Amino acid sequence: MLAGGDLLPTARRFADSDQLADAVASDPSAIGFIGLAYVRAAKALAVGDAGAVAMMPSSFTVTTENYMLARRLYLYATPKPRTPLATELVSFVLSPQGQTVVRDTSFVDLSVALHDGAPCDLRCPRSYAQLTAGAQRISLDFRFRTASDDVDSRAARDLDRVVLFLRAYPSAKLLLFGFSDSAGLPANNLKLSQRRAQTIAHELEIRGIHAATVEGFGAAMPITSNASEADRQRNRRVEAWLVQSK
């Protein structure tokens, strides 16, 4: 992130997030790394990578993990916790009530919402631009376990969140678009992106939700470079869009 360079010896470290944000806000030449909930009077910056569009941090870009610096918070519990309080805590955090607490404290929650799609640029495949015209994007992307078509731990729960959310839109059309990383042959990547989109369509189908359109776009529109395995993992995704009846 620092192009291989080291922090200057004069760089200041802060144990308090609010103090860091206030120090950056008071110095036009300063820059810091802070959680979105602590930006305060400082200015948040768009972050990009080679071959990808720079994005501003927002609840939408963090929830979809399109913002490069978005990070997941993991909760771990043993198969048989010593106290039921551990299981109750995890269950509460993942519940709608727990996510409301997350949102009320200015952190990014996992609640599902609709957002108007960003205007397509030259990177957009023509069919993608046509299909998303007038559609709204659901505020999550489905991702998969490494080298697998199996959804990861978050996506497994997001499937149920989407099903619950779509109950309010019984006549809307669901669109699923798969993407891959750029490793390998373009034809293989196109097939893989299609297969991933079909995986999500199948998982939703068995939950009673039918996708009107299921399409793959290969390695098009990367959200980050494909320079590392972590980057490639972020590009392997399925977007969900909704077209509401007029």
Overall form: globular
- Spatial arrangement of strands, main beta sheet: 1-2-5-3-4
Order of helices and strands: HHHHEHEHEHEHE
Any idea how many domains?
3
User: CATH-wise, what's the superfamily of the largest domain?
Assistant: OmpA-like domain
* Alpha carbon gap, first and last residue: 45 Å
Report the major sheet.
Answer: 5 strands, mixed
How many helix segments? 8
* CATH 2nd-level architecture of the largest domain: 2-Layer Sandwich
Name the beta content range. Answer: 5-15%
Low-confidence parts: none
CATH class of the largest domain, please? Answer: Alpha Beta
Helix/sheet category: alpha+beta
The percent of residues in helical segments reads 25-40%
Mean pLDDT: 91
Q: What is the CATH topology assignment of the largest domain?
A: 60s Ribosomal Protein L30, Chain: A
What does this protein look like?
By secondary structure, this protein is an alpha+beta fold. The chain folds into three domains: 17-63, no CATH class; 75-110, no CATH class; 112-243, OmpA-like domain (60s Ribosomal Protein L30, Chain: A, 2-Layer Sandwich). The chain is built from eight helices and five strands, in the order ααααβαβαβαβαβ. α3 (84-94) crosses α4. The chain starts with 16 loop residues before the first helix and ends with a strand.
